[in-house]
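Reading group handout, session on sequence-to-structure problems. Before we discuss, look at one worked example. The prompt was deliberately terse, the way you'd type it at a terminal:

> structure CDP-diacylglycerol--serine O-phosphatidyltransferase

The input record follows.
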Amino acid sequence: MKLRKLMFVLPNLFTVTSIFCGFYAITLCAGEAGPVQLYQAALAIFFAMFFDGFDGRVARLTKTQSDFGVQLDSLADVVSFGAAPALLVYKWALAPLGFAGLFISFAFAACGALRLARFNVLAARNPHGGGGRFFVGLPIPLAAGMLVSVIISHHVASRGEPLHESAVVPVAVAVVGLALLMVSTVRYRTFKDTRPSRKSAGVFTLMVVGGVAIATQYHPAWLLVACCGAYLALGLVESAVQVRTHLAARKVAAGSTAVAAVIDDEDDDEEAEDGTGPGNDGPAFL
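And the output record:
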């Protein structure tokens, strides 16, 4: 019985460790943080992603899922993937923009919190909704992962050089885009239903070939950015295809409705000419 109670603590330890990594990243960003401290903060958030990814799996393996764990995980995500990345990107790139940079950083954290709140509400309405094939909106760990991968890759590729001033505005635009994707209805795959097949093997092979090409042509550090960017692009493309298919289906349905209406009108006209339409008892001359 005691062992069973201890097993409930195990997944929560992973979640608390994720909070510690996020808090450590915040302390590294505080004050006059240099490129080394910001790089270490990005690594801390990256490790937080690792622990966050395993707490749910540990809970499922040990059959210790609980509502307490769900709420704790959301609070951990706000700290580790909302507040910590927002402060990190502000110190790394957006501080020269003044209040605009501060607001953009805040918007990232706020949109992440809104995304988590929406997820909790949907999960409460549908207890089995968390096991679906798609996320609604970009998950906050993946949004933070995109920022962290750029910071880590830039530090390694530039050998610790600060970010150039010309890149500040593109970074600000990217942060705004990630914030909007979190609160959007764009669907992103969970890959929970992925099974070994020819299709999955082909996709994996394509990813490996693309990764080798990026690593050899540019710098191996940018491989992480490419993987995160590919996931972002996949969600956008699939959502665009879905919207197009939905619009085409609505157009076909509207066309079928219009044809049916025309046929009904023609039938009514024929009935009126025969004197057998609604309200007619027979030919008028009788």
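Points for discussion. First: DSSP finds eight helices and two strands in the chain. Second: Residues 223-274 form the longest helix (52 residues).
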